[in-house]
Every structure is written in structure tokens, then in C-alpha cells.
Amino acid sequence: SPVLRRFSCPDTIFGCPDRSLLASTGGSRWVDTMIQTNAPTLRADVPSPPPSPGPVRELIESAKVILIGLLAAITFQTVAFQPFTIPSSSMEPGLVTGDYLVVSKFAYGWSRASLPFNPPLPDGRLFGHVAARGDVVVFRRPSDPQQTWVKRVIGLPGDRVQVAGGVVAVNGRVIQRTPLDVVSDHDMPGRRVLQVRETLTDGHSWTTYDGGSGQAGDDTGIFIVPPGQYFMMGDNRDNSLDSRWPADVGVGLLPAENIVGKAELVVASWKPGTSPFTPWTWLNFQPGRFFKPIR
């Protein structure tokens, strides 16, 4: 939609439980004051009120206001920030189904992916900046740019990335893992997962879900990330189709010009079943998910 975009759902292995992811009185008059001389009688002209605009003119003025508002909103979303909603589980537990998040467009500069409808412009980015490892990024899927997905940056240009036994290694060094506790999957309560804290050497950390050993994607070959591309992974490691899979299945290696922006903040989150067409569900918020920075 033009204001609230939705990520495409087919980026998870187990599917997406909530696909459904606005005047003078009387005009002029004669003055009766008579001057006792031969002077003529004076007349005071009182201005008449301006004519009221007709319905057609009012309609045109209203259309102008609406058009200016729409252009301002589109410009703001293109240049600065754009809202999105999350309809899938691939980035749990950090992002869950129903989250309404804000994406920064200027974090990495602008490309055709930043614009509505992904117009056929030349490759590259205007005022481009390299994404950092660990950033959560919104991007257009390489195999279908009309689909907008969200994943975390794991491999930068020139990196060598491998997953072995569910452990991610970059350039031969594993990303530190700290097991936390076993919980129920947020969107699939019947599925038990281990929460794991992953920490980079610079201290940046986030929480992932581990569904157990022997899962699809737990063991891969070595991926060498070419210049101008990134290796992406979902935090719900065993329920995410990402760069571990080829582009026709998951993401493949992500070209930099496909990046829309950086996910910055979860403003609020709605429970499954909420719809813009059912006003009685608009306040059906998920507790504890207001103004949460995205780590």
C-alpha cells in the first residue's frame, strides 16, 4: 500500500500465521443626514461582501490540499523514513508478526529500491554508505523486487561466511553464542526453541531462536561475499529463508542497490487478526512492544 508497506510472507520455512499482516447589512444605503445648506445629499458606499466560492471551486481547492499532502507524504517516505509492518516470523524474537516499524532511508543512501515501485533506474546508490555487520535491513528480494523482506547483515563484501552445526563463522571466527533459556516460539507456541545471545567482537549483540540440531541451514559451505553484496540471515535461524538458500528459494547474496533502508524502531505491534477494515481491532496491541529500538 502507498503508506503502510507489508513484507512478503514467503520468507519463512514454516509459513506465516498472519498474512493479513488510514457584511454589511443590506448592501449600500442612503444617508439621510441633511445639511442645512445648498450642499447635495451624500451617499456612503459600504463594500459588499465577496461572493462565496461555488461548489466546483471548493472541490478544486480541497483536491489541491489533498494532493499536496500526498506529495509531501511520498517525498518524506522516499527521502527520510518509511513505515512497514511485519507479517512473518523469520526475524523472531527481535521482530514479530504485527510489528509496525520505522525504516531509515538515509542510513545507506538512496537507490532505485528506495523509490516507490522500484523504477528501472541505473544501479548504484546516491550518497551510499556500507551497512554494518549486525544491522537489520529492509530490502527488495533479488529474484522478485516487488517483494520487500527484512533480515540481518552477517557478511560484508569480501567476507567468507559459513554455518556449521548452527554456529555462524565469519572469516574463520565464530560469532560468540550464549545460550539463554528455552521458550515457546512467539508465533508458534507449540514449537519450543532455545534463545541464544549472539555477540560481535565490537559488543553489538542480539537474540536468536535455535530450533535444535540437524535443521535445514545448520550446515553450509563457505560463501565468499563479492564486492557490493551482503550475506543476510534471519534471527529465527531455523525458520528463515535467507542467504543460505539460492535467490529463487531464499535471498541469495544481496546486492547493495536492493537495500531500502535500515530498520530503526518498532513503534507498536498488533495481535494477529487486526485489520484496518475492522475498527474494533485497532487497539488490539501486543503489550511491551511500544517504541522498541531494533538491535
Number of helices: 1
| Major pleated sheet | 9 strands, mixed
Mean pLDDT: 82
Element-by-element helix/strand order? EEEHEEEEEEEEEEEEEEE
Low-confidence stretches: 1-8, 17-40
N- to C-terminal separation?
27 Å
Radius of gyration: 29 Å
Q: How does the helix and strand content classify structurally?
A: mainly beta
The multimeric state of the shown protein is: single chain
Proportion of helical residues: under 10%
What's the count of strands?
A: 18
Percent range for β-strand residues: 25-35%
Tell me, briefly, the overall form: globular
Overview of the structural elements:
- The protein is mainly beta.
- 8% of the residues lie in helices and 31% in strands.
- The chain is built from 1 helix and 18 strands.
- The chain has one helix spanning 55-79, and strands spanning 5-6, 29-30, 43-44, 81-85, 99-104, 136-141, 144-155, 160-164, 167-170, 173-174, 176-184, 192-199, 205-210, 223-224, 229-233, 254-255, 259-269, 292-293.
- Strands 1, 4, 5, 6, 7, 15, 16, 17 and 18 form a 9-stranded mixed β-sheet that branches.
- β11 (176-184) and β12 (192-199) form a beta hairpin.
- The longest helix is centred in the first third of the chain and has 25 residues, at 55-79.
- The protein is globular, with a radius of gyration of 29 Å.
